[in-house]
Structures
1.
Amino acid sequence: MTSEDPSATHVPASTSLANRYGGQKRAMTRKTKRNIVIAALVVAIGLAAYVATGSAQAPVTFKDIGYSTVDDTQAEVDYQVTKSPGATAKCAIKALDSKFAVVGWEVVEIGSNEPENTPDGGRTTIQRTTLRTESPAVSGVVDNCWIVDSGK
């Protein structure tokens, strides 16, 4: 014997689930899919262009060439700096001990380059900096280089 409530209404299961969780999602139209793909391509091309032009316009780059220890109180660091020939750059040079602790540090200024007799028009110069050290150095490197603001 089953007792049913005559006031209860029987709603089909699919309608009941739709009311609880929402109706079925409509599929994206072909036009919407195409617009999403086009937008993604435009963003990707813009990002690629930004990265390409940003790295091509680096104001100054540097490369460590070598180092030598003169004695327990001096080290020499050889490096090359590439920048616009008329620009002035500053580079932070450091000497390190066997535990990679900084034992010598100096900021050097690299003035404008003479474009004569250089294959790249005076953009790259080779520099040597002698650092005073507080203990024997086993390495010397360029920490960073930057262009000096000409407006100051």
2.
Amino acid sequence: MTVLLAVVLGVGTTVATVGVATATHRVAVVRAQAAADAAALAAAAALVGLVPGDPCSRASAVAEAGGAVLGGCSTAGADARVTTAIGSGAFAVSAVAVAGAPSGARHLCVYGVHVGPRSSMSRSTRTASHTGDVAGPGPTSTIDQGDTCQARRSS
């Protein structure tokens, strides 16, 4: 009976240890991917001018805030590709994320909103001091906005 109890306890301990190790690895994978996604979005936002600063330094700051280390950062046009890593040695987990304009997009978009001289924001929500000098001429109404990156809504 003692031998059987020792075998059962040994198998139970082994199964529990493997389960905890698997769960810990999965948490690290999810954290690495979340940090990579956030860092890529920060780099893409810096590329199009939504936030100030160098895209890769923005990505590094966001990755570190997420508990990861920036492994690589590259930009091409309005796209940013970021690699992050969590852990070290045999337990290191890395993730890759890409952010930017969707492929085949005619205009530069961030979160589905047109970014550029013409804004999809209605005039009523813009400030009254908008002169058009910085952002260019705006739309004349909420219907006449030209091509935007999101579906038109009726007024």
3.
Amino acid sequence: MTSKNYNPEIHNRRSIRLKYYDYNQAGAYFITICVQDKKCFLGKIKEGLNQINQYGKIVEEIWNYLPIHFPKIEIDGAVIMPNHFHGIIVINEYQKFGESLNESLADGLEKRQQFYEKKTILGSVIAYFKYQTTKLINLQRNSPGVKFWQRNYYEHIIRNEDSLNILRNYILENPLRWEIDVLHPDNLTGVW
């Protein structure tokens, strides 16, 4: 950023990723991506049933395409809510980006932190997903260059089969809980 008003003490974006966790390793991740300003652009929920619109169908199409573009991943359960998306991504084997992990670990804490802040397969998958869906949705909306998704995304590392099953169930039942969902635009609590 080259702005004269930039102050790294104030404007430094804090990462919400787990510090020192290697997001290139094989594993399962539950992700949540929100539409900008929690606007309900992807469809609606009526009587507990999810009714996605043409933009929601684009999200569904790109989600289903991810394993073709990234052959070392699998997709699991997913739900397209009116203003957000939940999905489970499984990385099947370690993905190497940039320098090797062993070199980073040998060079101490600062070097290790730099390694984990580099591009990861999970980050690449999410970036691709957001870019492609935004491009196609904006094309349909005749709004090129307009931000569609919020800047970041939430991820949860799935560590065991029980957790995976709980999250699959959460995805299935999410439309039934829409009225009390923290991401519902009329929910002012903002509590997760």
4.
Amino acid sequence: MDDRMLRRRVYGGDHDDPDPGPRPGHRYGELVGGPLDGLLLDVTGWSARRLAEEARLPTEIGRYGPGGRTHYRRRPGDPDHWDWSGDSR
């Protein structure tokens, strides 16, 4: 991992964690657009089928607030980036 990646915050990490960045030996995708823009999604151990599916991530900062989800899809031709596709309840 390069220095830029090490300074990034991982989705789902504890906000009080003194080291919220990526962990060695894990695989990450960068979330692009939407409420989680710039966060890293830990996809370590995900199957090819799971990687092809839309990630529906719980978040309080999306369009629907608490209880809402924001959706990201892996970018075709650039699997290290996941593009925002909308929010839902």
